[in-house]
């Protein structure tokens, strides 16, 4: 059977004044723990990691491992502009019990393939017996991970996979051709669980599934059944949710408020949903919760 992991990219909850809402974040963790998904991806883009300080990072990792760890895998994002900063976060997360890590490429300044290789080699050493996922998001970082570079990274024993965000199916297929079969490829495109699987991905890291997981589970089950009509209907449900919530953290948090999960806000400079958007969020919650 084709592997179709769904890892939930979990938002971080903040109070309206921007301070960390730890209890709200824990409420989201506990909600996600009931999803039936295979894993959680914490403190990534959806978790607003660039706005999290070291003390908050430790609090959130500790809470995530406590609230999610019995129900699913927990992948802790540790990426930073420098290996020095990223390694410091690896060490702190390992002290708290984390064993799976992801790291976005360095960002802001351009980095060559050789510089990226050194960055990930340094993180690989810090991760030790744990597992490390490369996080390729060139639209945000400015630094792409070429298939050739990914192939070189896949030679490291503990670099076990890649999360590919805003990469086309053709680019994911090129990754698949460059790495061993056991090397895991996750798409960051919520709606592409089945489509990306068709070109060699083993699953999706989905922020939208943190809000409404059931349609994603239904899509995975439909794909496993081989029933094309069932797949089309399940895909339409996922497409509906993604079209309304997408990778928009304020919309995710508005949905949590509407469902009574957490009264959280964003810390980063993001636009709040309009009245029309809130109405659509209410609609998809009623239809797909």
TrEMBL record:
The active site is at residues 135, 163. The keyword Lyase applies. It holds the Pfam family DHDPS. It comes from the Bacteria. It comes from Microbacterium oryzae. Belongs to the DapA family. InterPro entries: Aldolase_TIM, DapA-like. This is Dihydrodipicolinate synthase family protein. Keywords: Lyase. One of its GO terms (molecular function) is 4-hydroxy-tetrahydrodipicolinate synthase activity. Pyruvate binds at residues 46, 205.
């Amino acid at each position: 059977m084709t592997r179709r992991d769904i890892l939930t990219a979990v938002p971080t909850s903040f109070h309206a004044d921007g301070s960390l809402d730890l209890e709200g974040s824990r409420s989201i963790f506990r909600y996600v723990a009931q999803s039936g998904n295979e894993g959680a991806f914490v403190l990534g883009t959806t978790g607003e990691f660039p706005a999290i300080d070291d003390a908050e990072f430790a609090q959130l990792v500790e809470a995530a491992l406590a609230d999610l760890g019995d129900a699913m895998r927990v992948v802790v994002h540790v990426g930073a502009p420098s290996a020095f900063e990223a390694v410091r976060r690896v060490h702190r997360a390992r002290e708290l019990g984390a064993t799976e890590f992801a790291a976005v490429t360095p960002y802001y300044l351009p980095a060559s393939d050789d510089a990226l290789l050194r960055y990930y080699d340094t993180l690989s050493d810090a991760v030790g017996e744990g597992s490390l996922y490369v996080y390729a998001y060139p639209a945000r970082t400015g630094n792409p991970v070429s298939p050739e570079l990914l192939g070189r990274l896949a030679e490291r024993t503990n670099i076990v996979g890649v999360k590919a965000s805003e990469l086309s199916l053709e680019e994911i297929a090129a990754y698949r051709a460059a790495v061993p079969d056991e090397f895991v490829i996750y798409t960051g495109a919520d709606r592409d669980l089945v489509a990306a699987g068709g070109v060699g991905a083993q699953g999706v890291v989905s922020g939208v599934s943190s809000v409404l997981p059931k349609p994603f589970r239904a899509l995975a089950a439909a794909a496993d059944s081989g029933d094309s009509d069932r797949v089309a209907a399940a895909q339409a449900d996922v497409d509906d949710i993604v079209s309304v919530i997408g990778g928009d953290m304020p919309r995710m948090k508005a949905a949590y408020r509407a469902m009574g999960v957490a009264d959280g806000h964003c810390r980063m400079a993001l636009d709040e949903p309009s009245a029309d958007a809130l109405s659509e969020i209410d609609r998809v919650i009623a239809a797909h919760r």
